[in-house]
Amino acid sequence: MMATSVHGPSVAIIGGGIAGLVCAARLGQLGITATTVFDTGRHAPGGRCSTRRVDVRGQTFLFDHSAQYFTVSDNRFANIVSFLHSKGAVRLWKGPVGVLKGRQFKRSSELQAFVGTDGMGSVAKCLASLSKVERPVWIGDVVWEPMAKKWKVDKYGYFDYLVIAHNGKCADRLMANARVPKIHELLRVRFTPKLNQKVQQMQLCSLWVLLVVFPKSLKLPFEGAFVEGSDVTWVANNTAKLGHRSAGDNGTSREHTTRQSRRGDEATSSSFC
Q1: Using CA atoms, how far apart are residues 182 and 256, in angstroms rounded to an integer?
Q2: Contact between residue 106 and residue 56 where contact means Cβ atoms under 8 Å apart
Q3: pLDDT by residue (tens digit) across 172-207?
Q4: CA 20/CA 39 separation, integer angstroms
Q5: Got the DSSP string for 183-245?
Q6: 161-164/11-14 β-pairing
Q7: What pLDDT, in 10s, does the model give residues 110-163?
Q8: Exposure b/e, 44-58, CB count within 10 A at least 16 = b
Q9: Which of 33, 101, 134, 188 has the highest count of CB atoms within 10 angstroms of its CB?
Q10: In what order do the strands lie in the sheet with 97-101?
Q11: What is the pTM of this model?
Q12: Is pLDDT of 248 > 80?
């Protein structure tokens, strides 16, 4: 049994993406340090905030294949970003970022975006240094024990508190038999090709990502752009964004299974901001 330590209550955080890692960091700021983050990542934590390294003809290209950047709107998170900056893990993305409509690009002057210095994986790597992270670990069973008033987390023992920072589908499945029906009801999800604002339930939309390496620079007027009027909703030049100068460019684009409204695109992209 894992007893409560002198550092406060014990906390199990299921999911080592940015939500889980920031949660652990914030708890540490509050003096709660007996936290364990459980993550499934084989190579690194971070979830969708990760970077792929692809070798093409003897040259390594970095792709931020999901989260492209983030913004700061909360003072508590700003403190964490300050720490990341002091460790050289993040920097401001100064390159042209905006909206692409047809062949016309309009820069977003008010956007203050941050990126990882060596890809978005740098963010997760630095955050993970603040907490105890167990990986690669798949938590398949959690149960609330009312007699002990603790959570039993698979084979890893008992914790005073449980944080679910997993994706919706896995969170739904994980909590189905946890003996807490009211919590499970909050985590129920449904797959849908288009966001329905009237449905009071978590909704998941399919997302397709294409990674491309070009033999020479495309000399684009932007480094990142939200695309209007197309099934492709986002394009980014990762070579330019990360400041890696080479003969060619490598890009990332996102495509939804169905065309969404501009409002829907912004909602999808909010996970990156």
Answers
A1: 32
A2: no
A3: 888 888 888 888 888 888 888 778 888 878 888 777
A4: 9
A5: HHHHT-EEE-SS--TT--SEEE--EEEEEEE-SS----S-SEEEEESSSEEEEEEHHHHTT--
A6: parallel
A7: 889 999 999 999 999 999 999 999 999 999 899 999 999 999 999 999 999 999
A8: bbbbbbbbbeeeeee
A9: 33
A10: 104-107, 97-101, 224-228, 232-237, 250-256, 207-213
A11: 0.78
A12: no
C-alpha–C-alpha distance, residues 206 and 151, integer Å = 32
Angle among Cα 133, 139, 142 to the nearest 5 degrees reads 115
Buried residues in 61-74 as b, exposed as e (16+ CB within 10 A):
bbbbbbbbbbeeee
Cβ 8 vs Cβ 158: under 8 Å? no
Task: Name the one residue in this structure whose structure tokens are 């020479």.
Answer: 216
Strand 104-107 and strand 97-101: the pairing is antiparallel
CA–centroid distance for 78 within its chain: 17
Give the torsion sign (CA, 16, 19, 22, 24): negative
**Does residue 165 contact residue 229 with C-beta atoms inside 8 Å?**
no
